[in-house]
Amino acid sequence: MDLFKKCTHSEPNHLLSEAKLAINTGYYPYFLPLEDTEGTEVVINGRKLLMLGSNNYLGLTTHPKVKEAAIKAIKRYGTSCTGSRFMNGTLALHKELEEKLAVFLNKEDAIVFSTGYQTNVGTISALIGKDDIAIVDKEDHASIIDGCKMSYGRIKRFRHNDMTDLEEALASCPSDSGVLVIVDGIFSMAGDIAPLPEIVTLCKKYGARLMVDDAHSIGVLGDHGRGTANHFRLDKEVDIIMGTFSKSFASLGGFIASSKDVIFYIQHTARSFIFSASMSPANAASALAALEIMQEEPERIERLWKISNKMREGLKSLGFDTGTSCTPVIPIYIGDRWKTLYMWKELFDLGVYCNPVLPPGVAPNQSLLRTSYMATHTEEQIGRALEIFEKAGKSVGII
Question: Residue 321: is it exposed, middle or buried by C-beta count within 10 angstroms (0-12/13-18/19+)?
Answer without folding.
Answer: middle
